[in-house]
């Protein structure tokens, strides 16, 4: 024989609704935080790969390609390296600004990083990418962590100049 079916007591009614009302806002806050930081890490990964590809292209250019042009002070190959990085970042739509800068390290007479002018053979080349990430979806929740300002991500890739 089967056991008789009991009716739920009146004291137990509504406890699921109360538990859901308590737990649901906490779960939404956790999910919004996870999605926001996943988006930040995705933007940083794309920026890092864009800087890597731009620096790799710039490092492999020949001396003839890295020579200055009559069009302006900056070497056209450095502009192409910046364009490579910017094209890879175009899909992000991070909500803020995106910039990419190609730099060369000459090493003489005083070692410093500067724009690639092409007058000397660089020892190292670098591409710096800056991405400002803001959150359009969960702004009320993430504003607590960011004070309403975007998160600025910087990815730098420097490598030896191997062109020749």
Automatic annotation (TrEMBL):
It comes from Massilia cellulosiltytica. Residues 14-56 form the TadE-like domain. The chain crosses the membrane at residues 21-42. This is TadE-like domain-containing protein. Keywords: Membrane, Transmembrane, Transmembrane helix. Pfam families: TadE.
């Amino acid at each position: 024989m089967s056991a008789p079916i009991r009716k739920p007591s009146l004291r137990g009614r509504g406890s699921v609704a109360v538990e859901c009302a308590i737990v649901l806002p906490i779960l939404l806050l956790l999910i919004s935080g996870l999605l926001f930081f996943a988006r930040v890490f995705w933007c940083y990964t794309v920026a890092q790969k864009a800087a890597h590809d731009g620096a790799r292209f710039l490092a492999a250019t020949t001396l003839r390609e890295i020579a200055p042009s009559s069009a302006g002070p900056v070497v056209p190959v450095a502009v192409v390296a910046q364009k490579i990085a910017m094209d890879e970042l175009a899909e992000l739509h991070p909500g803020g600004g995106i910039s990419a800068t190609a730099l060369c390290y000459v090493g003489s007479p005083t070692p410093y990083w500067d724009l690639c002018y092409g007058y000397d053979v660089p020892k190292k080349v670098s591409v710096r990418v800056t991405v400002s990430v803001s959150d359009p979806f969960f702004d009320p929740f993430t504003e607590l962590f960011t004070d309403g300002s975007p998160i600025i991500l910087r990815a730098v890739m420097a490598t030896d100049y191997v062109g020749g």
